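Researcher: We're teaching a course module on how sequence relates to structure. For the next exercise, students receive a sequence and then see the predicted structure as tokens, so they can try to spot secondary structure elements on their own. Here is the exercise chain.
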Amino acid sequence: MTLHPQGKKGVHILKRRYDVIKEFIVSTIEQHGEISYQEVNDLAVEKLTDTFDGKVVWYVVSVKLDLEARGIIERIPKTSPHRLRMKKTEM
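Model: And here is the predicted structure for the students to work with:
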């Protein structure tokens, strides 16, 4: 069950599918530092469609929201289209 950053109801996702998409999103953001959501989505469709057994775009949206809710990634405030980065950990 995923989480939603605004406290809305999450969705059920098979763990193996969640893990593939999570790994893709996190590694893509780490490689770029900052990246637009649309770029993440486009790259995911390009790289995962042939091997992923599901609608890549739907899973990217759901897992991205979950990662935001868990404090792993964040939307950069006041960016349009919205951009993503890894959440800075407090030391």
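Model: If you want an answer key for the exercise: The chain has one domain: 15-86. The chain has a mean pLDDT of 95.
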